[in-house]
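tokens incoming
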């Protein structure tokens, strides 16, 4: 072979090697790009999972807080219901208690001590039973300033003095509370 042919073959080989090197380099770059894209996709999947987890955690916390508020509200309503459950029965018994008060007043005018003592015993027993169920007498007396939030004015009469104007002159019917709630307002007469 001659030198020219060898040189030609060598230069062809060099050209072929260069082309192969370029193809290898392109394949390597493409492979690196694919790997980077896969890493980016994996990060995206990881980020997506992290975001989904955060959303679910937020949803769970909101649901839990809502449930706790529901439990607190229903417990409070149940306690209020138990406190005022016997309100209707107590309201029905108040006229009986008023009748006992009137009866004691009238019997005390008579001379019969045994009758008075018997009625007072029954009155005290009824009163103590109602108190045990949560009933309290709402104290309003003559001479107190009239407050429409805590008493019901039945009528107005001329005041005996200037200092009795706008004040309670007489209490016609006692008022009662059940816990903190007034179930019957006292009925009063006020001075004008």
């Amino acid at each position: 072979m001659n030198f020219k042919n060898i040189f030609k073959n060598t230069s062809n080989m060099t050209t072929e090697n260069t082309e192969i090197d370029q193809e290898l380099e392109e394949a390597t770059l493409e492979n690196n790009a694919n790997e980077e894209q896969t890493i980016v996709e994996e990060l995206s999947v990881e980020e997506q999972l992290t975001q989904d987890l955060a959303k679910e955690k937020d949803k769970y916390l909101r649901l839990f807080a809502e449930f706790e508020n529901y439990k607190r509200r229903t417990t409070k309503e149940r306690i209020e219901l138990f406190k005022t459950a016997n309100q209707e029965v107590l309201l029905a018994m108040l006229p009986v208690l008023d009748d006992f008060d009137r009866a004691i007043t009238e019997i005390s005018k008579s001379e019969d001590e045994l009758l008075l003592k018997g009625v007072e015993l029954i009155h005290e027993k009824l009163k103590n039973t109602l108190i045990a169920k949560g009933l309290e007498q709402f104290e309003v007396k003559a001479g107190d300033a009239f407050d429409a939030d805590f008493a019901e004015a039945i009528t107005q009469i001329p005041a005996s003095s200037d200092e009795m104007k706008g004040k309670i002159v007489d209490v016609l019917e006692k008022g009662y509370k059940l816990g903190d709630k007034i179930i019957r307002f006292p009925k009063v007469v006020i001075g004008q």
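note: The longest strand covers residues 152-157.
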